Amino acid sequence: MRFLALLSLTLCISSATAFGQRQAASPMAPPMGWNSWNHFAGHVTDGDVRAAADMLVSTGMRDAGYVYVNIDDTWQGKRDAKGILHPNARFPDMKALGDYIHSKGLKFGIYSSPGPRTCAGYEGSLGHEGEDAKLYASWGVDFLKYDLCSFQDAMLKAAKEHPENPGIKKEMMIAAYRKMGDALKAAGRPIVYSLCEYGLDQPWIWGPEVGAQMWRTTDDIDDSYGRMIAIGFSQAGLSKYAGHGHWNDPDMLEVGNGKMTEDEYKTHMSLWVLLAAPLLAGNDLSKMREADKDILTNRDAIAIDQDALGKQGERLHQSGDLDVWTKPLSNGRVAVGLFNRSWSTRDVSVDLAEIGFRDGAKVHDVWKHKDLGRRTGIVTDTLPKHGATLLIVSR
Ligand code: GLA
């Protein structure tokens, strides 16, 4: 890195957050935690979820802010004659599981669909929204991901039957999401409501009014650099819809799932924190490598995501495969992401004057844990293939 050459190699302890003690994340900040889907998919068990809760504590992830333990699809069994849904044999006792998660200072998340079936073909909540919301509350659930899936069949059918109403699919979808939002409110327990309709119908516009705190903006992520950057860099323009208690969700993290390089996972985390995205780790925590843990628990990266100002970042410049993104932070600071999407080493720069620091600024490199001192004008970094640099710029 050219602009580091004159600097001492002293490692600086960051001042961005007090670490080593539990971060009291604001309930209005983007939710952070772990979700079973990206690694365990349809095989997840009670044991896997308990192990994830244990590992969140022993790895320090809980204390870094990752508090939700979310079971995604495939926990459901059958409904009984009274319409009460029971978990399947892989989840013998959901209340006990919730109690276990809570006993670790963590929160409990669950998953359902407004349709008759979930995406994996398990029992959905259609026609049972009130009962299900009450059931979740009785288990101590703190988070619900509500995934459109088979409700789309009903929407398509209605669109065919009512060609005179081109808006019918969207109206039905919003009504379905509102129904569960209302049921959660009536259930009398604060439950984070996370919409998953893949960004099909601008959920960032109507999400808050149905009671949601976050909504997916895209179709599913997978553990590949191509898919991750296609999602991350397509988020430009959405920042105005994010704010305290209502966040755009570009899908869960793949860091640690093994199919991207360390530079690519740093790009993933850099982009997600600049986007003020919910940070839901999706890896097998029991097999987490140090390098992946360092990415997921980087205190300054997390502080950018969770910053008190509550602003989502935006693209400042794009030139071919090179990108510069910025996110305004509290106390007049700015986070800057420099990205190299090309297959070769490239220089990427930001002009401090352009981002409001005409007289220069202090620059801190988040991934290198280094203060770069006071800088003026253009700051350039040399990035490896698929690399990212994350900076915090302050007066
Ligand atoms: C959809 C969602 C994923 C995951 C699966 C589960 O694809 O977008 O995040 O929840 O369903 O079946």
Please sum up the structure shown.
The chain has 395 residues and is α/β, with parallel strands linked by helices. Helix content is 28%, strand content 23%. It has helices at 37-40, 46-58, 61-64, 94-103, 129-139, 151-161, 168-186, 203-206, 225-233, 262-274, 290-296, 299-305; strands at 32-35, 68-70, 76-79, 85-87, 107-112, 143-147, 192-196, 214-216, 247-249, 279-281, 314-319, 322-328, 334-340, 346-351, 361-365, 370-375, 378-383, 388-394.
Give an overview in words.
The model is unreliable at 1-24 (pLDDT under 50). Helix 5 crosses helix 7, helix 6 (151-161) packs across helix 7 and helix 9 runs parallel beside helix 10 (262-274). The chain is globular, with a radius of gyration of 22 Å. The chain has twelve helices and 18 strands. Strands 9-8-7-6-5-2-1-10 form an eight-stranded parallel β-sheet. Helices cover 28% and strands 23% of the residues. The two termini are 22 Å apart. A hairpin with a 5-residue loop joins strand 12 (322-328) and strand 13. By secondary structure, it is α/β, with parallel strands linked by helices. Bound molecules: alpha-D-galactopyranose. Residues 37, 72-73, 118-120, 147, 196, 220 line the site of alpha-D-galactopyranose.
**How many separate helices?**
12
Largest sheet: 8 strands, parallel
Order of strands, main sheet, comes to 9-8-7-6-5-2-1-10
Secondary-structure element string? EHHHEEEHEHEHHEHEHEHEHHEEEEEEEE
Number of strands: 18
Q: Roughly what is the average pLDDT, rounded to an integer?
A: 94
- The Cα radius of gyration reads 22 Å
| Helical content class | 25-40%
Low-confidence stretches: 1-24
Name the ligand types.
alpha-D-galactopyranose
Oligomer: single chain
Shape category: globular
Structural class by sheet pairing and helices: alpha/beta
Our estimate of the beta-strand percent is 15-25%
* CA distance, first residue to last residue: 22 Å
